[in-house]
Amino acid sequence: MTGTLLPGIVARSVPTDRYTANVLERPADGDALQTVLFVHGNVSSSMFWQPLMLSLPPGIRALAVDLRGFGDSETLPVDATRGVRDFSDDVAAVADALDLGPAHIVGWSLGGGVVMQLLLDRPDLVSSLTLVSPVSPYGFGGTALDGSLLNPDASGTGGGGANPDFVARLAARDTGEDAPTSPRAVYRSSYVAPGFVSEYEDLWVESILSTATGPDNYPGDAGPSEHWPGFGPGTRGILNTLAPTYFNTAGIVEAAAKPPILWIHGAVDAIVGDASFFDLSQLGAAGIIPGWPGDQVAPPQPMLAQTRAVLGRYADAGGTTREVVFEDCGHSAHIEKPDEFRAELLAWIS
Prior knowledge:
Blueprint: E1 10-15, E2 20-26, E3 34-39, H1 50-55, E4 60-65, H2 85-97, E5 103-108, H3 110-121, E6 126-132, H4 164-171, H5 183-191, H6 201-209, E7 213-214, E8 218-219, E9 222-224, E10 231-233, H7 238-241, E11 261-266, H8 280-285, H9 303-316, E12 321-326, H10 333-336, H11 338-349
Parallel strand pairs: 3-4, 3-5, 5-6, 6-11, 7-8, 11-12
Antiparallel strand pairs: 1-2, 2-4, 9-10
Helix pairs in contact: 2-3
C-alpha cells in the first residue's frame, strides 16, 4: 500500500519468528529522545496513525505496527482461545526484532486490549500506556459491572455478532457510501462523531478495507448457546479474541510493574460505551433484536464503568492513571481531536 503513505512516513517489512509485520515509521531527527509505538484497532491498520506521527516533535521516533491480517502485514490465523495474545505476542516480537526496549505504547480500541495484555506478559517493553477508546478489561459484551459472565456461554459475544453484509462489503472492497453497511458509511457513523469531516477519509477507508476476512480473521466463527440470542463465541478470528470467556486484562491491577496509564475517549463514542449499539444486549433493549430477555438476564455491558473501576483499582495499588474525555468526539480521538490528543500524549510521556 505504498500509495497510502503520507510524505515523511516510511514503511518496512519486519520478519519475526511469529509473522512478517508491516511497520510504519516517522524517524526521529538524530538520536531519538523517546520512542512511541502505536497499535491500531479492529477493522483498521497503522495508516490511521500517520497524521499524528508526523505531528510529533522531531526528537520522537514514532512507529506503528500492522497486526496480523491487517494493512500490509502477513495474514495468519488468529487463535481466539488465547484472547488477544496472538496480537500482543506479535507486537512483542516486532519490538524485539527492532530492539526497541521500553517504549511508550499507544493502543486504540482492540489495540487498547492488546497493549494491556502486552503489559501483563512483557512489562519490560512498556514505559507508559495510552489507551484510546479501549475495549473494556473484561472484553466486549456478556459481562456485569464486576466482569462476571452473564451466563456461562457468554451468549451474544464473538464472531456471530458481525453484520454479514458489512463483512461481504469488506471482502468486496466496497468504497461506496450509499449502503448503510458499506465500510465508508460505517466509518462515518461509528468511527467518528456525527458530522466529522476529514481530508483523509479515503485513506481511512483504504485502511479499513485492508482487513482480512473469514473465520480465521474478521469476524471469526461462532459457537452454539442455549441462551438468547442463540450463539456464543467461537474459537477463531478477531471478534472472538474479545469474548469474555477468553479475554480479561483486569490482572493489570495485581501486576508488579505499573507504568502510568492515560485513558482518552470521546464523549459520543458509538462503539465503546455504557450503552453501545455494537453490544447485542443494547440492540435487544432497543427492540432491534427480538426476544431480548430483559435487564435482569442480558443487561448492556457497562464498558466505561468497567474500565474506570479497573483503572481506579490500578491507581489504588500504586499505579498512576489519568482519564481524559473529549466532547464532540467519537471513537477516534487521535484523528478527530489531533491537537488536543497530541498535547495530552506529549504531556503524559514527558
